[in-house]
Amino acid sequence: MADGEQQGQQVPVDFDESKMHSAYANTVRTANVGDAVLMDFGLGLPVQNQGRQGLRIQFGSRVIMNWAGAKNLAMSLGNMIRQYEERFGEINPQGGAPGGASGGQQGGPPPQL
Length: 113
What we know:
113 residues, alpha+beta, three-stranded antiparallel sheet
């Protein structure tokens, strides 16, 4: 079969979600580790320590991706954010989601996944 003939074929994909787990995160820490991108996802909660307010972040999940996967993730998130903002209004990164959209308000309960 010639190369041109293979381009039109669809490859079946089987999604196995049997070992997947879900976690809520409101914080991400990223690092460049040479040929990969490292992302640590965590939950940041306000704490009081000796009368001073602070923030405690518990990291619970780490994802390591190659640069092509990271770029695909960035493009996908960009498209999702654009569509969300077209529907609900601009997201303020410091203040959560706009206008009462479910599951996106800062400080509210995590969405049910």
